[in-house]
Design goal:
With 535 residues, the protein is α+β, with helices and mostly antiparallel strands. The protein folds into two domains: 148 residues, no CATH class; 261 residues, Outer membrane efflux proteins (OEP) (Up-down Bundle), CATH 1.20.1600. It has eleven helices and 15 strands.
Amino acid sequence: MTPSPNDIQVARTIPEGSVLSLAQAVAIATAYNRDYQLQKDTLYTMALDLRLARHQFERQFFAKPKIQDAKVDGDRVRTVGGGISPRLNPEKLGQDMPVEMPGPTESRRNLAEGGTWRPDQIGIEPGFGFNQMLMEGAAIGVNLAVAWSRLLTGPWQGERFFQVLGGQITQPLLRGRDRTVVMEGLTQAELDTLYQVRSFNRFRKTFVVLVITQYYQTLQLLDVAKNAKQNCETLTWLRERVEKLVKAGRLPAEELERVRQEILQARNDYYQADKEYKWMLDWFKITLGLPTTTDFQLDENELNALRAIEMSYPDFSEDEAIETALSRRLDLANSSDAVVDAKRKVMVAADSLGAELNLQLNANVPLHDLRSDNKTELGDFLMAALQMDLPLDRVAEQNVYRKALLTMNQKQREYELAQDTVRLEIRQAYVDMTEAAERYKVSSEGLKLAQKRFESTLLLMKYGRASSRRVLDAQNAFLDAQDAASEALVGFAIATLNFYRDTDVLQVRPDGMWEKGTMESKAVVAGAALGTSLP
């Protein structure tokens, strides 16, 4: 039994209670995220449009034979291969429609006057052939039709097999002849595909940073919830200590009530922190493209790995970062190429303002009986014509030309704005990264001091030299310092990633993994690494 494609099921669930690493999260997101899949579909659609544009310059064959039975002036005619019509028009040879070709003058006059129908009045529609557009603007059409006719009355009784071979060539001699003008549609389709590839690669980088950002932010909320839970446990332990001191008469009773009140507030803070973490985790599941009912845990080692990294500052200047971004940003390259496209469209529009002169060549091999050597029944048909269109009325073309000029100016302004925007983004990202590094450094020192203060205050309370209020204040300060340090750590990691993304030195491999490239200037990116997940 042949397997069906539907038999292949891609696992979109994670084992219950399993731990999802950062690398696994990125891999799942690139496989199942809906926006990511939409970008892939858009790129594929653009590739299909390019295939169609290229097909316009390929040889396009057609085969539409027709079986037809008709009577003309009492004579029965059957055709196989092409249809029949009263006349043949050589201008339609090679097209997917009935064609007509005039016979000899006497035969046409005889038919118009109601005379006896003759085989030279057979109209045969093309059944087989091809059309092709050349890059120099020439259009070629060739068709072949075969007809089997059985004439039951009149002087041309009997069975006869006819064939007709025709062709047409149209070559522009003035406007529409330039190769650039003829190829404009294909050129733009190829460039549009290139732009979409760049846009997709740019999207992949921003998407990976988004996934990492949400992963770290969710971990940070988990850390806040853990700190809140630990705070509840610490306050519960502190209540037991204060209760003993109160019973021993070393502390007033109201201090025990204060500790109990702090415990209630701490529990409320824990429930709130846990709710925010679960909400963020569900939102992260949507980013991954997974059902919100999927049960998994984030890898806390990813956050511990960030804490273990030694803080370092970038040794490149802001100007070097801006220079790198201007040379590497793919969206900026698209904006720059859009200016080139607009200039090319101005040239194409200018071409349409001139005079039109087309050379048309038509030829038709005489329709003849395949069972004999007689080839003179319809007569030869050859035609050469020059078709001219003087530029006396070009209002529409002039409007297109002026609009193309306006578009070119607009694209130039958009490119200049894009450059300024990139410079602003890099300046902001550079400031955010350095500020985040300073904030993380300060918060780390504050955490150490808050922990030392809590321990010393607790020791003083043990010997009756400090009240429980001082211990509670120290504990609250320690909790705030823990949350601030965790937030600063994640903020620094995200700011660094955003800086690498905006300078376009963040490289995303086909498997969804990422690595940090180097600056295309004198300095090398030496910013802080972002954990063991980075190669």
